[in-house]
């Protein structure tokens, strides 16, 4: 006859084994160590495979982030040079528009361009 403590321990182990999916009991309710070791090794192999997949995915994400970081750095350099060119063009426009003759030349150019667009619209816009 079993005592109360051993019955509780056996009952808890049976419930835990059933819940966790272990089927490593041999004859007489004793634990089969080799079976548990095989289950443990299978679990470790599965975990190692998952860790490898996560590591590969993480390295892929790192590569993409580095690539995008380089693209953004190049874009920043391009924007900086474009800003410099626009600033110099603005300065030249200020120089041209300062004098009366420069304003007249600029006004003539704008009116000429608008006139050409108007002629193009009349010729091709009513097709």
From TrEMBL:
Q: Report the subcellular localization.
A: Membrane
- Name a single GO biological process: protein transport
One GO cellular component term of this record is: membrane
- The T-SNARE coiled-coil homology domain covers 34-96
Question: Gene3D superfamilies in the record, alphabetically?
Answer: 1.20.5.110
Chief localisation class: membrane
Q: Which PROSITE patterns match?
A: T_SNARE (PS50192)
Q: How does it sit in the bilayer? A: Single-pass membrane protein
Q: Where would you find the membrane-spanning parts of this chain? A: 104-123
InterPro entries to which the protein is assigned, alphabetical: T_SNARE_dom (IPR000727)
The UniProt keywords, alphabetically, are: Membrane, Protein transport, Transmembrane, Transmembrane helix, Transport
Concerning PANTHER family, the annotation shows: GOLGI SNARE BET1-RELATED
> What is this protein called in UniProt?
t-SNARE coiled-coil homology domain-containing protein
Source organism (scientific name):
Chlamydomonas eustigma
